Fold this protein.
Amino acid sequence: MLLQKIMEKNPTMPEKLQMVDFLIPNATLSAFDLELTDETKKFLDETRQQQEELLKLKQISDEQLRMVVQL
Amino acid sequence: MNNFAWLFNFKLLQVTIQVFDEQNFADALSNAYTKPEAIKIKNHFQYFKDYLGNGGGLNAQYMVIEENYISKDYLHDYATYYAFCFENYPKFCKRIHFFNTTVTAELLNKAILGTLDSPVDFWSSYLGFIVVKPIPTTVIGFTVLKDYNSSNNKIDRHFWGLRYYKVHVFGHELEINSLAFQEQDTVLAACATTAIWSMLNKASTDSHTILKSPNQITRDAANISSDGSRLFPNKGLSVLQICQAIFNSGLVSEVKTMQPSVTNLYTKKILNAYSPIGIPIILVIKVPEGIGHGLHAITVSGYNQSPPSAIAPKPDISWHAENIDRIYAHDDQFGPFVRINFKDDIDLITPWTDNHPQHLPTNVTNIIIPLYPKIRITYEDIEFIVRGLDAILSLFFKNKIKYDLVWDIKIQFSENFKKGLLSIALDEEKKLTLLKKSMPKYIWSASCYMDTSKVFEFTFDATDVSSNMIAEDLIWYLPDTEKEILHEYLTRNRSIFESTLIKKQRQHYYEFLLNRLS
């Protein structure tokens, strides 16, 4: 009943998603054991490196803090 | 030219109506210390002429000029500094009102008295005002003008840093959605102070944040200048002093930087992430000036961003923030809502670039994000987690999906997040659970899109400590069968994937994922 009232108020609510709309032809999703190939290891290592880079963004130097914004 | 005047308590209130053209506009902006010829060579004059003009601007037709106007903002600065000058600077300003319709004395009188046949049409043509200060050269005072969307509404343009101003015009109360602008007077305020002032104009709509005059903001920043000399005339503020002034107004700051310059992608990510809070964001930019560069501060209150679209799968993570292709900022050396475009990885095209003889680019050196103090989790804390999730999901979907996963990280008021849930296709039971759930005031959401559809969304408590497991919920928009398959996949490969999530609490994050997928 509540959903019906919401639909009346928001008639443009999208329909529920169907996975088939996002899959390439003949593809199916499955729960597989991931093989740690060199490519996969490299991908995961790169992810970790990118995460570490994010932590460095938190550091601002004293010199930067004292730059005068004057124009 | 139509003139009429009323005598009121020894103050002569003179109101003049003028056609909006170049000469009349220069005359209107002039004062006893600054002649129209000097006005015409100001960057502001050129900018406002275009902004108010009819080539993509607000299409102003007429000006109504109000003499002997008391501007509260200028009065504060006058009382603090100009009143003590030997020179007898006036305390009265003039205010120029702009209309995009024809205005005559008869029409204006009827509009004021409320005897027009269609008063709504007249007052809806009101575009805003500029206060002209009675000081040398830096004449542009408190200015509130409609934004671009008012004349040419484009759905991709998002002005998130605006507020409603009540403008009282001859007894009538009008409302304009905008962000106040003024140019620095180079005495009580340089660009940094003016940028903070514009930002506080919006932030102070929250009762815990205080709007101060430029002079008060500069005083909040420090007692003396960075080099030890007097604070006034002010020659600028350091990044640290900017943050101090922001702190004294009831907010806290996050300062972002990169070497050699902040990348355009990072700028887009930050603007995209923090814009839902509604507080304008200050960019410290390196602008070309003469043979070198100088540092300048601007206040960003909007951007142009296309909606999510289909992207083919690619190795690098995709961000919805990449769809921002232009930003709008108050630049006190030009005007409000200055258009800034991105070029390559680190260059911006600003009016500074356009006006420079060699068109040298502008670069971002710092991003200063004013925030409410309860927001403790940073954007980087969330991107850290999202990168881990993207890695896991990319391997799960690899070679099976048509579209790349596109992530949209944003901080929101939880009340707005709940409002958004009302129009989303979700199980009634799940929707009710979320709507009734007690949430922190601020939440981070990391939404994942495929094509134009949101497929799932993670929420995080933005008020918690980063060392805790801050994930709140996973909202799944795909069919439940896919959820079960993903749960099984995560269970099988847990030993590999746990290390890609946050280092602290990784076990709890993984348990959270499995729990929400079961």
Summary: The helical segments of chain A are 2-9, 38-56, 62-65.
